[in-house]
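User: Can you write out an input/output pair for a complex, sequences first and structure second?

Assistant: Here is one pair. Inputs:
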Amino acid sequence: MKASNSLWQKELAGKTPEALAREIDIYETEIELRKQSKVEERLFAETRLRRGVYGQRYDNGQRHDGKKVQEMAYPSGALTKGPHTMWDAPGMQRIKIPAGGLNADQLETLAELAEEYSDGIAHVTTRQDFQLHYVHIEDTPTIMRRLAAANITTREACGNSVRNVTACPYAGVCPDEMFDVTPYARALSKFLLGHPDCQNFGRKFKPSFSGCGQHACGLASMHDLGLIAKERTENGERKIGFEIYVGGGLGAVPYQAKLFDSFIPPEELLPLAQAIARVFARLGEKKNRSRARIKFLIQDLGIEKFRELVLEERKNLPPDPRWTEYIESATAAFKEAPLKPAGKPPLLGSAEFQRWLKTNIRPQKQAGYAVVTIALPLGDITANQLRALADIARQFTKETMRTTVEQNIVLRWISQDDLAAVWQALRAARLAEPSAETILDVVTCPGTDTCKLGISSSRGLAAELRKRLAEKNSQLDEAVQNLHIKISGCFNSCGQHHVADLGFYGVSRKMAGYAVPHFQVVLGGEWNNNAGSYGMPVMAVPSKHIPEVVTRLVDRYSTGRKDGEAFKDFIKRMGKAELKNLLEDLARPPADPADRTIFTDWGDPREYSLEDLGVGECAGEVISAIDFDLADAEREVFEAQVALENGQADRAGKLAYQGMVRAARGLVKLEYPNIAQDSNQIIGEFRRRFYDTQKFFDPFAGGKFAHYLFTAQEKSQQPHTADSARYLIDEAHLFVEAAHSCYQRMGKPVAV
Amino acid sequence: MQLQHVNFKLLVKSPEEVSLEPLIPVFHSWIQGQVLEELLLDIADYQHVPAGPGVVLIGHQANYSVDDTDDRLGVRYNRKAEVDGGNQNALRQAMRASLIACQRLQAEPSLEGKLQFNGQEIEFFINDRLLAPNRDSTREALHSDFKAFFTKLFRGSEYALAYPCASEARKLFGVSVKSSRTFTPADLLANLDG
């Protein structure tokens, strides 16, 4: 959509790592191919999802406007970017921030992108990512290029892939940590990104790192792969390692992760993760999307059998020097240090400053330094604020910042001497809200604002609760002020409501014949102990009555708790029956039939309807590895044609040959997953497994198309003329077609 | 220099009296009626963000908002799709769209007349850093376009151009325009078309 899109590639030439630049060029070609309907829509959907390009609500081209369903007359007509997703419909770009680590340049880049391609806001997610909303698909290659120039990738931010590797935002500065997990999180993130063993999952895979077991930290218990830093003594020597948990997850039915091993040394971190990935790819469910997460596989197998399979896989892994190289280089390269000398805590200051100190500051283990939390309302930050924060980070730190899963940003290594100045600077940028990790710091998923699966307005409710609680915050006792509220727009738990003191997730109920937005009330979840336990569902209450639910619960807790009793224990002691008693009148429709307020949701005057619910893309599309390989082969043949048209005969010939080899490799991998990248080896295996066995033979043309490959191999070192390139391109087309036919004749592929 | 992705913001009189909450049902009604030139799609509510985009009406070709960026509240038009016909046409198109939106908001009964253009101050941005970097060269390249456009827009009246973002290279290229006398949106529309 942007006029400058075609100019950015040249503008950023040389400023982006070559491999990253090439990937984005490939993606841009895939967009062109999709526009020409040369790529199947499901394949394109998964392709873009694996680059973090997501759909949004109403992208099926329909929107209930409060009176009727409107069909959006997009200029691109019936062109789609995936099943049920119209080409021109606004989408979302998810941006991975491994372990939440950011620098000032990256904040400035995000500011630019939020202004130019989105609605002026960058949104921090519950997995330490950023998201930009209302983005056009044709702008996404440029967005990726500009991010790549700032050393950020969007690859595998969505889709059936390894998602962002999260880590405790206090790693390296927390007094209670065993050791700094940051370099290990980075090493794992780098190792798994684009790894061949992670390309055939049936569903997403979420790893996290914790520095300790007792705090919330990295929330290991609710992750597919949770690593907790540990130490032990071996032969009188301190050794560090990880306690490893697998199979946790929230979703509709939350699972606590199971202990895989109580201690693994760091050099086993990457190979074990790879082995786990292989088992998940091989045995994980692929047809039934609602049972495709690894937690279900582990439940079905049992942890003992799962462990056995993983360790067996581990034994068979071909050695990879990156297992130790990545750890060594990450630990050597990662050295956070302060900009300013250590200081002393401020003693004086205004009441407002003191309030901010109380909620938004935590001392580091390094004496004289503190972590400052910038509480972002609903995780949102403007472009101007991002730039201001970049300036503050440069002025007071060596740009040591992290996003958090509570949708905030922390500034680490602030000298205690600078706290007053930092506060003033943040205040000037409207980033000094004194509410971090308090009841005002409501966490919420996007919900019905932008998510196709949203049932009730999580953001609307969150904004309303923030407003009401802020009005009476000073009257709330400290135990109440420290409660966590988390809200999800539906049962999929993106707002992490299961681990909140007061959790809510969107549901719908019928009242008086009409659909009414509700929230299921889920109480007493445990945030600490790495998401130690999940809350108890109590009952569903109309969305408009939830603020009263919160009022009654906090009042009852305030007056009824035992000395020092945690909220979760209080809820357990009260019990479901008593809680229902307390709240059940709120579940009824208003007494006055003229009162229509419950029939609309927070922040939305339209009469509530479920008509806008769409098909979610969180589950992505299950695409086999060979589908991707054949699509890549077609793309290379397409690029060969373009090169020939541009007078680059030799390049055209080489690309055509490359496409044939890639298609051959895709077939070979069906039987021999560990085939190398070497073209001679690939063609040798292809000949043995597919030509000699006649599997590749066309019913009418026999082995003719295979000979195109063999001849191309013989001539692969010769330079191409325009003629020879043209012929080879034609032959490559036919070879790739034959590969498709061969695959289809084979039926369901052997699992890779 | 090619002008695309033109943004205009018509600053509001008495911003302290304007509540953004009533805009939400207003914008929903605009989507219901598809009352503007662009395909209107959705609403993004950012009232909770200080000095932020306010309430945004998302369209395919453009977004409309009552925007409080830099603590300057105004009716903002953000052109996303390209406009043919040269720079004057790009300016004319965006200004007309802004004025029409502003007129509608001013006349909207539920806003109780509180949202009114202050009659004099307009902000202009180009929402594309590569096409129009925030540098002196952009100002020089576009000066004659601005002169021609604003002279016509403020027919007969003096106006001042300032470049408030000149000292902040990271920001979008922007211009602040202030006319010597006040105009209504209808006046300016008539001048545009005259």
